Amino acid sequence: MSQDDGMRERDAELRFLRSIVENANDAILVTEGTPIEKPGPRIVYVNETFTRMTGYTLDDVRGKTPRILQGPETDPEPRRKIREALERWQSVRVELLNYRKDGTDFWVELNIVPVLDDDGLYTHWVSVQRDVTERKREEEERRKSEAAFRAALAEQASDVVLIVGPDGSVRYGSPSLVNALGYRPEEIVDTDVSLYVHPDDAEEALGAFGEVLAGPGVGSKPVALRVKHKDGTWRYFEAVGTNMIDDPGVRGVVVNAWDVTGRKLVEDELKLRDRAIAASSNGIIITDPNRPDNPIIYVNQKFEEITGYGAAEAVGKNCRFLANGDRGQPGFDELRIAIREGREWSGPLRNYKKDGTPFWNELYIAPVRDEDGRVVNFIGVQKDVTERKELEEKLAHQAFHDPLTDLPNRSLFLDRVDHALKRAKRRGDGVAVLFMDLDNFKVINDSLGHEVGDELLVSVAGRLQSCLRPADTAARLGGDEFVVLLEDVEGPEEATRVATRIEEALRAPFWVGGHNLFVTTSVGVALGGTDGERAGDLLRNADLAMYRAKDGGKNNHAVFEPGMNERALERLGMEADLRRALDREEFRVHYQPKVSVRTGRIVAHEALVRWEHPERGLVPPAEFIPLAEETGLIVPLGRWVLGEACRQAKEWQSWYPTDPPLAMSVNLSAAQFKRPDLGASVAKVLDDTGLDPRDLILEITESMVVEDVTAALVTLRELKALGVKIAVDDFGTGYSSLSYLKRFPVDYLKIDRSFVEGLGRDPKDEGIVSASIELAHALGLEAIAEGVETASQLERLRVLGCGLAQGFFFQKPFPRDTASESLAALFA
């Protein structure tokens, strides 16, 4: 199945599930918020049954509280129970008198259940409302009948009592006729009883009547029949007759009939649900936890299709047989605990089909309880999500591996170094990082072309791995830079032996693209393990040592020493200048447009900070942004850039009005994102500048949100509440995890320039760009391609369905005045 087919199938499933919800027998209402938030929980969704039941559409009630359905006659006691349960985020079940839009009242049985997200945070309430007006009316009728029964059994019976003569005429009708069928007794006396029996049921009813007439005292078995109500509708009744023709006070057949319409409707509903379960597009499993080993008692046809096991093969077994002994996954322990505690659970599990083929099963289980709250069954809903899991694993691999050599990338390497340092500290041994740079690689790349250069890098990666132990890690940082992690290192001698082995392995010629190529490498070695080093520190030390090796004549290695501080001193000088730069107004904001791929129109600008150093001139961001982040200066700098960009956006909107207005995109640093006052800071800038929040796009990187998912989610929701839009920058180069991405409230996915660069010539880059665009569309996001430099790249993006693009092909980042002139030319 192609990815497009899979997407269509999933869309069809979503439409089917939405159809089930929209056409459910019960009204469904979804709210967000809590009673402590004024004015209280607000309605965000209702299904069609709710509209039919109440007369209110979603547009009528959206943003309002459920109190719109209540009136002065509504009992305050159930409302108090609801309020107390919501304040504690607990489920609650009550009966409540509500009012329709036209003012008529009706009774509902109301079940309210809180909804949690994947982080365990409560986000919404789901209210399921069942119209029990008929039942309440029946209860009231029975109450009145029972009270009157003590006065006169026959006259006040809750069941309908008729006396029918041998000729079929009604001779007596009890007062209960009024409530049951709408007739006053005098209206049906002397009429033929067959007038009130449904034609399809008449034969069976008359047959039973004939049997009763066979002799005095003869009674009939209960007969099910439909009886005509005075309003023209048909009600379901069960009736028995007794021959009392010889009784002088009766002289007819006494018919006792009782209304079973409610029960019949429930039975019909259950039959409909059974048919729906059998025809579901998901696998359905029902188990009995009260029998030994919680055996399966029912599976539907979709289960058989997914697993290959027939119903006869599955019934009677515990569901664990699908695991085929593979029960070491964390989900199994969680599942067993949920079953033991009688609660819901959902999550992915790796199961196996009958032929042994593994598949990923998205499983949801829920307990079924009887009236006493006892768990009588578990229902499991399973969905085959193998294709989705494979895509996630593929994207995760791409996120943490270099696309050219398939070695770990910087993110994965630093993560492994971090874990290695923690293990080394516990064990008391050493860790070494080797930083490698190929000597004169640029000459080969420039003279023979990038394709030959890329092939050479792949060959270097292969030889590099052949020099290492299985537990060691080789990674590519980018360009011709490789790094190696060595664990359980006794001292610098062992690390330098590995460096020598790598130098000798690379010294042999490479046959690439019809050329015999000779490559040497400079290697920097840094040791750590017990002194609390950080992964970044170790990598930086190895980098410093590598430059010392290059200074020593290349094709050499050097071990880091504390005296290698020349660059550190330079860093200190730049830090001092950086601290003064903001006060001296040395920073400038340059603007690069974002263009609609489809129309070619500028729709937004990205604000990019530059440092105009009084002595060094224009300092590129790559040289001072990392330093600003390390020193904390990035926070006031970022606040300044945000203010300047928003003011500029408002000014351009007034000069060049468009629909929609020109937007402004501003990058957030990790330090800014972690600050608790970020939302307030952004709100103040918007208030000061007058920029509409919808015209501001804040860009974040993946690594900023995965460090603390819960905190990141809170921050993103706070920003979204302001009305601003969120973009994920450099997608595919960091922690590209679908499990995080799908949960965060973002609007744009920015595809990194390193992938856009290969469009039209590198199938791997094109595949990554295409998958990223499709992923963005699947998540309801808009894709933005960075680094577009050629018309062919733009054309490929247009074919792949990318929404926005930016890069030198359109315009370089320009200062404010130059960017304004460019806009003026467009709007001239």
TrEMBL record:
Gene3D superfamilies: 3.30.70.270, EAL domain, PAS domain. Residues 13-89, 145-216, 269-318 form the PAS domain. It holds the Pfam family EAL. PROSITE patterns: EAL, GGDEF, PAC, PAS. Residues 571-827 form the EAL domain. InterPro entries: Biofilm_reg_signaling, Diguanyl_cyclase/Pdiesterase, EAL_dom, EAL_sf, GGDEF_dom, Nucleotide_cyclase, PAC, PAS. Residues 429-562 form the GGDEF domain. Residues 90-144, 221-272, 343-397 form the PAC domain. PANTHER family: BIOFILM ARCHITECTURE MAINTENANCE PROTEIN MBAA, DIGUANYLATE CYCLASE DGCP. This is EAL domain-containing protein. It comes from Rubrobacter marinus. The lineage of its organism: Bacteria, Bacillati, Actinomycetota, Rubrobacteria, Rubrobacterales.
